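pasting for ref
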Amino acid sequence: MSATNRQLVGEVPAMRIGVIGRITSAEEHGRYVRIQQLSDEPPSYVVLTASDRNFQSEGGDAWVEDETSLRQYFEESRWTVQWED
């Protein structure tokens, strides 16, 4: 997988960078999510959410400092995400 389409695994459910997913549990059930890796060194991330797959409607974003913070963000959100292939 490329750096913009890679899977992070560990203690929390797998997260995929640069891939659209559908949140299937928790408070944001039914919304779409995409993680963007920023070019910082070490990389930071932006987690985008929206009600539509094109991220044009009722969207939001959250910046996280690093991969550890990204894992914590997903853990705290309690999301289950169905990632697209």
